[in-house]
């Protein structure tokens, strides 16, 4: 490999590496952007879930918050000395009672335990607006007050605010009223929670209103009681609730419940995925075109170089082969001119040499002219309906004596019913002659040529088979290219320019046919011509095929 070829290969490798590196970077960027979009969408839903549980806490605790403004020292003094409780306290009780989440409001003074002493408990009557002593009350009130009393014993030493919310799961919301200056408990409020209203009237509606239908948003939210493994409410009742992507707990309340989220096909994620797929398609197409262009440029440059080398070799061979017959004719002419040849036998011998070399020279020139006319688009093709079976047999008979003189066994076979084909008989003669010549040149010990004409599936086939040296598999795809010759010892000794099969293929194509090759190195080759059967009417004249010169009998004729 020369320096220029090495440089082209290095540049191609660097170009491909640069394209692949940029492609990988683009792919990474696109996937990172896609994941960022999906994660951002999920984080948005998580933030909304966090805001939701905070809003639930605010709704439950807001009726009791005005208690924080009461003077707890004064409240404790009034409780201890039997004074009237402040109006702000009763106003707060009314607000709690008006909240539909709470079914009843109870008050227990510090230092008393109505649940154990059976002395009755203070119940707020919303109709009178006062506290009344009742002796029958739910056990949940006692549980809630007991939990709150225990918790406040732990917190009393460091707690700094007037009230503290403590929940007994979803049964009661309890408020400890605390005198922070004296580190004393003033009393306990127990708000009995209406579970049915909380779940069905409030939380279920809020989940639907805030998060929409899960089938549309791609995010399923549900209120879950993890102790009972029960789904209390969901924005997508038909979804599976056995897996989740995120859990949002209620802060310091409703300990047995939480909000769980499952992400399926988020609209933002679907849009990002669609955008990613479009970008991947365009990127893949661009990379494919770019790599294809680089490879095509490299292959084109390589083939141009190979063609240039074959052309240079061709020119050298042609120059040599043109000089050889000219030298023979010149030498024979000089001997004749000098009068050195006087016997009739020698005159005939010299004449035969001159004639043979002239024919050889004419054939070379005709072949070069055919190539030149074809390249210039000046080669005329006149197609007509032809009995290819008879034409092939006739052309083979013309060469039979010559082939026998060269030591070849000639075999011809044909089907009985072979339809006519539409082609130019003159160019077909060139095609057939080149194939026979090719078989002769590349046959050594086994000299046999078989020609077959047959029809299959509305096509007519002509096979020319030899028992010659064959063509290596790696060279078969190049044999129809101009100036190409298989490099081996036989071709080195055989005269030729690599034009015959290139001319054959071009003429076959221009006659509407195709040519293929079946060959095994060392065992011979088969060239197969295929032409579409002629569908029009066909006539014979004097038992000979109609050719391109007999226009009176033709049903169709074309000139290329």
Task: Describe this structure in a few short sentences.
With 560 residues, the chain is of the alpha+beta class.
How would you explain this protein's 3D organization?
The radius of gyration is 52 Å and the shape is rod-shaped. The strands form 5 sheets. Strands 3-2-1-6-5-4 form a 6-stranded antiparallel sheet, with helices on both faces. The protein has a 5-stranded mixed sheet with strand order 12-14-15-17-16, with helices on one face. The protein has a 4-stranded antiparallel sheet with strand order 8-7-10-9. The protein has 13 helices and 20 strands. The chain has 560 residues and is an alpha+beta fold. Helix 1 packs antiparallel against helix 6 (195-211), helix 1 packs antiparallel against helix 8 and helix 8 runs antiparallel to helix 9 (344-376). Mean pLDDT is 81; it is low at 540-560. A hairpin with a 2-residue loop joins strand 14 and strand 15 (459-466). The protein has helices at 3-61, 72-81, 87-98, 114-117, 139-155, 195-211, 214-217, 267-337, 344-376, 388-405, 425-441, 489-493, 500-510; strands at 102-109, 121-125, 130-134, 163-168, 172-179, 184-193, 219-225, 230-234, 246-249, 257-263, 382-386, 409-414, 421-423, 448-456, 459-466, 514-520, 524-532, 540-541, 544-545, 558-559.
Keywords:
560 residues, alpha+beta, 6-stranded antiparallel β-sheet, 5-stranded mixed β-sheet, 13 helices, 20 strands
> Which stretches are poorly predicted, pLDDT < 50 over at least 5 residues?
540-560
- Total helix count? 13
What's the total count of β strands? 20
Radius of gyration: 52 Å
Helix content: 40-55%
**Largest sheet features:** 6 strands, antiparallel
Mean pLDDT rating:
81
Strand content: 15-25%
Shape: rod-shaped
Give the helix/strand class: alpha+beta
Q: How far apart are the first and last residues' alpha carbons, in Å?
A: 43 Å
**What spatial order of strands do you see in the largest sheet?**
3-2-1-6-5-4
